[in-house]
Amino acid sequence: MKRIIGLGLVVLVVIAAWTGAWVWASGQIDTYVRSMADNDGVNQPRLVCASFGVGGFPFGFECACIPAKTASAANARVTRWNLIPL
C-alpha cells in the first residue's frame, strides 16, 4: 500500500514539475514576442499583435497573433498577416 501512495506522489510531482516548466516556457515566449513590438524595424524586425496568446498545453506550444503586423527595413514595407494556429 505504501508503494502505491509513493508512486502516486511521484506522479503528482512529475505532473506539477511539467506544468510549471510549461507555464514558465510559455511566459518566456509571450515576453519575447511582445518585446518584438519595441524593435525599430531597421536592425531587428518589428512585430505587433492586436491579440496574442500561447496555448497547446501540455505537449506543445501554439502561438496566435491576430492580426500580425510586421515591419522591416530589408523589404521597406509593412505587411499584414492573419495567422491561424494549426
Q: List SSEs in N-to-C order.
A: HEEE
Please give the order of strands in the largest beta sheet: 1-2-3
Q: What count of helical segments does DSSP give?
A: 1
The main sheet comes to: 3 strands, antiparallel
Strand residues, percent? 25-35%
Termini separation comes to: 45 Å
Global structural class: alpha+beta
Rg from Cα: 19 Å
Oligomer: single chain
Taking pLDDT < 50 over at least 5 consecutive residues as the criterion, the unreliable ranges are none
Q: How many structurally independent domains?
A: 1
What value does the average pLDDT take? 84
How much helix, percentage-wise, in residues?
A: 25-40%
The total beta strand count reads 3
Shape: rod-shaped
Description:
With 86 residues, this protein is α+β, with helices and mostly antiparallel strands. It has one domain (2-81). It contains one helix and three strands, in the order αβββ. It has one helix at residues 2-35; strands spanning 46-55, 62-72, 77-81. The chain has a three-stranded antiparallel beta sheet with strand order 1-2-3. Strand 1 and strand 2 (62-72) form a beta hairpin. The protein is rod-shaped. The chain starts with a helix and ends in a 5-residue tail after the last strand.
